[in-house]
Amino acid sequence: MNKPKTMSIGGATYDLFVQVPHEVIRRKDGEAVFALPLGQKVRVENLQESCGGGASNTAVGLQLLGCAARFEGVIGSDQWGEKLLENFTNEGVDARCATVVEGEVTSFSIVLTGTGGERIILYEPGTNAHLHKANFDIDEVAKMDWVYLNHIQEGACVLQDDIVDVLAHEHPRLTWNPGGCQIDSGIRKKANLRLLKYTDLLLLNKEESLAFTESKTTEEAMRKLLACGVHSLCITDGGRGVLGTDGKTLYHCPCLPVPVVEVTGAGDAFGTGITWALLTGKDFPTALKAGTINAASVVSSVGAEHGLLTEKEMLARLASENLEVQMVGQV
Predict the structure, then answer these.
(1) Region for residue 47 given its phi and psi (left: phi exceeds 0; alpha: psi -120 to 50; beta: otherwise)
(2) Cβ contacts of residue 102 below 8 Å, gap of 6+?
(3) Distance CA 106, CA 93 (A)
(4) How far apart are CA 74 and CA 104, in angstroms?
(5) Which CATH class is domain 5-236?
(6) Looking at per-residue confidence, does 121 or 270 come out higher?
(7) Could you give the maximum distance between any two Cα atoms of the chain, in Å?
(8) How much is the pTM?
(9) Each residue of 292-328: pLDDT tens digit?
(10) Which of 22, 58, 128, 317 could form a disulfide with 107 if both were Cys (CB 3.0 to 4.6 A apart)?
(11) What string of H, E and C letters represents the secondary structure of 135-181?
């Protein structure tokens, strides 16, 4: 049986996770902040390195779930870029569409984490900012069964029109997780509106959905997005779970009650799980479960890719987890 072919477009990042001691965490205006004293040494409790970035996470996740996954993005010819390429090789991800740039720094993040899942990400976008038409292989997009468009830098937003041209004439289906410049420009921007028309699965968190659509509630945001032509969409809301719709029925899926160690990559894991489920013909409630189960596995360990489930593990968890998806109305 041929594996479904997927392509993840966007960023790859090398992450260094630094767990800071509990005593530097403070509460300010009801929110947790890290208070690091200037001029002093602070002994950290744990250091871990991991590959990350939206397109890297989703490509590795889809490969583990039984797809023939491909990565398309830009990395540097430095030590971090080498580790990202090594990780793709080890995980079986096809990175032939990766562009390696000489003399540029690969995207790198330092993730400061607390004992309760708190985090601050210090990042350098590096080569992720260099994805554009000149190094984007649009012909390969047309060969895919499913395309996963992750957050991209502002300079790469021009690629949306090329992707739309392929989707309008070829068979690939599309998962889109907009961010940054797309969220800021909103659904009124022509390029976003064109892409929404061909989006099979749209993924946003609550804050992004409200900003993207200029709405006051998630229900209002959903109605606007469906009116743009989106086939199905999910709006995540942290510990309150996710609202999702297949275009007709509105569902709510709660989070699994697992110990949260670190939340980086949870959204990508959710998107990977639900995309795999829809790609392999599962119904929408089951797809919501798959995304939730994958995300719960990732937040139970440090790093965006360490907890990603294999297809065998996912099928077993779908059969064993007592996770009830509720139908909450029509849209």
Answers:
(1) beta
(2) 76, 77
(3) 18
(4) 10
(5) alpha beta
(6) 270
(7) 60
(8) 0.93
(9) 999 999 999 888 999 999 999 999 999 999 999 999 9
(10) 128
(11) HCCHHHHCCCCEEEECCCCHHHCCHHHHHHHHHHHCCCEEEECCCCH
